[in-house]
Amino acid sequence: MELTAQCASRLLSCTPKLLNNPLETSRRLVSSATATLRNQKRSGPGPPRLKIVNARRESGGGAEVDTAVAVKEKPKSERFEVYRGSPTPFGATARDGGVNFAIFSANAVSATLCLISFSDLHDNKVAEQISLDPLTNKTGDVWHVFLKGDFKDMLYGYKFDGKFSPDKGLFYDSSRILLDPYAKAVISRGEFGALGADGNCWPQMACMVPSFDDEFDWEGDLPLKYPQRDLIIYEMHVRGFTRHESSRTEFPGTYLGVVEKLHHLKELGVNCIELMPCHEFNELEYFSYNSLLGDYKVNFWGYSTVNYFSPMTKYSSSGVRNCGCDAINEFKLLIREAHKQGIEVIMDVVFNHTAEGNENGPLLSFRGVDNSVYYMLAPKGEFYNYSGCGNTFNCNNPVVRQFIVDCLRYWVTEMHVDGFRFDLASIMTRGSSLWDAVNVYGNSIEGDWITTGSPLSSPPLIDMISNDPILHGVKLIAEAWDTGGLYQVGTFPHWGIWSEWNGKYRDTVRQFIKGTGGFSGAFAECLCGSPNLYREGGRKPWNSINFVCAHDGFTLADLVTYNNKHNSANGEDNNDGENHNNSWNCGQEGELASTSVKKLRKRQMRNFFLCLMVSQGVPMIYMGDEYGHTKGGNNNTYCHDNYINYFQWDKKEGSSSDFFRFCCLMTKFRRECESLHLNDFPTAERLQWHGHTPGMPDWSKTSRFVAFTLIDSVKGEIYIAFNTSHLPVMITLPERPGFRWEPLVDTSKPTPYDFLSIDLPGRDIAYDQYAHFLDANLYPMHSYSSIILILSPEESS
């Protein structure tokens, strides 16, 4: 017979309390379940009711007593066969003719698996709710269940119940359906920028149920495994790359759109794409009307992750069709086709915070599953905000760091990506909430005074990733700072394999190229791969990711067009974005300028790009810089889904193509020169510094000239010089008896004579114009210009 908790309690009241007796076990079992059911009345849905079975009279120590064995009802379902399931692996896994569901939650008192028909999702209807038995469907802190049945067009989510006590870091709400952190696809709105029902920016989301039919033909794809020193990286936004109408792609703004334009990257000489965030995020997070542009602000960049295992479905031409499986396959197709073109793909990942924000943010997944585990919290439940976005992912918590490693492994093994760039990676080196050295290291550390958020010299997460048998062989790039003031460029814990976005390279190169005094020595360090930052720690030049421009900040064209940011279109009264850009407008602010100013700007763009290509380390190009894309001086375009952020193919193919030619030739030159991507820092045997005269470099604070020769096994010897003074200079070249210096690049010359390629018509005539200087071992350098000369035998000239 079925009894309520009260009836079960009465039955126990007439049962003797005998120690070391099976009756005591029955009493404790029923008492525990009774307390759970009482809590259910206060907190909402809980486990199923008790049944008392096999009630009978038994002899115990010569006396007859009443006995009762209490068991739980097996979770029931009208559509599915329900079994206990396995606590591993986490997530939903198709196996043994069904699907196993497993999810971690240490602080929840009950868990319910919600199954949702794809057609009912927008109506917020749940097809089936299966309450999990904490006795049979829970192992440790993992809730699990195994189902057999028809999962066609079926999605899932979870409800968790427990305390709602923000001051203790608990946010349980049994009315909310939450995403599984391990879900492989997230389904909601299918079209980028389209509102949900009734204008809802956060409609209900649900997770894809995997199927045995979810297969993809990789056609034998294998990792390219380029040595990192040989990479030329291209930072790209998937939607922005082909969304502009001039792309003329069949599927603009999608993974397939990128595939259609891979030939452009091949022509540019790029062999690695760095994709800006492609994990599932909600682009309507900042949705609001922008009166200045007459459109709507959105989260365009995507640095606000909802789910880390799911590719952004709205970057797929198929959207949420086939419950997200088609979107997964489109991402895989992009990777496969890029590999066919000889291009690696690395992902920009955001493990420093999530889209759930602070205590006032939405309850989507991590917060409702186990907030105090997934987020870095203060003693009274407040959110630490080292990310500047409301919360901080609790990266060095044992559960969270395992989650991150599992996620990275998935993208490498299942999606075939070649590496990762970690946004605000310094957060991953901070101590987790309730830091405990015994828990982390197995024993206490003498003098261990570490508190939540303290920088760690050996962060457990970085240690795990670095020594993981799958991950230690992929590209690992850290943005080695965060918004909490931790700046680790040159000091990021690296285990010999981590590279860094070299922000110091960017700042120094900008200062020197625009003619600021006192930077010649620092600029020379940048050209050598920043040994001042990386040599002492045992790292190499390729541990430096060199860049002049990236997604946040000025584009290359804006860097030479604006002294000040112009961010009014963001709707924040120009208060957002970086104020210190180290830019120079070349004499006039904005695009409307004199002919002489425009010529100088083009020269400066060539100077920056040449510097990037002749520096030791790994160069990174920002999307659109190869044709001179402008954002109108806006250095923080996170919210614009429009022409500001779109690659404009008509501009690339039009009048700006002269700079594109220069870029293509410079990347080709870099690839051909073995000496420009060395495995170690150059020494005096290979590199010599010069000033206006050979062997006499000027490192004074007034110097604006740096030159060097480099021995190259392919080209022989190369002479490279930068004159960033406002005055021209006549330089004396190093004497090489029996050889002659021949001009290859001079950024002061008009296109196409800025780069004297072999196939250039009139190349010999251009040579003749230099002849009388070169005969005297001299070369005239224009102000704000750079040159490359190649040493050739006398008889060949």
Describe the structure.
Helices cover 23% and strands 21% of the residues. It is of the alpha+beta class. The chain has an 8-stranded parallel beta barrel. Strands 3, 4, 5, 8 and 9 form a 5-stranded antiparallel sheet that branches. α11 packs across α12. The longest helix is centred in the N-terminal third of the chain and has 22 residues. It is elongated.
Short description:
Its main location: plastid. By secondary structure, the protein is of the alpha+beta class.
Write the layout of secondary structure elements.
Blueprint: H1 5-13, H2 22-43, E1 50-60, E2 63-72, E3 81-83, E4 91-95, E5 98-104, E6 110-117, E7 128-131, E8 138-139, E9 142-148, E10 154-161, E11 164-165, E12 170-171, E13 186-187, E14 206-208, E15 233-236, H3 238-242, H4 255-260, H5 262-268, E16 272-275, E17 279-281, E18 288-290, E19 295-297, E20 305-311, H6 325-340, E21 344-349, H7 366-374, H8 398-413, E22 419-422, H9 437-441, H10 460-467, E23 475-478, E24 499-501, H11 503-513, H12 520-527, H13 531-534, E25 544-547, H14 556-559, H15 595-614, E26 618-622, H16 649-653, H17 657-672, E27 687-690, E28 705-712, E29 716-723, E30 729-732, E31 739-746, H18 763-775, E32 778-781, E33 785-793
Parallel strand pairs: 15-16, 15-26, 16-21, 21-22, 22-23, 23-24, 24-25, 25-26
Antiparallel strand pairs: 1-2, 3-9, 4-5, 5-9, 6-7, 6-10, 8-9, 10-14, 11-12, 13-14, 17-20, 18-19, 27-28, 28-29, 29-33, 30-32, 31-33
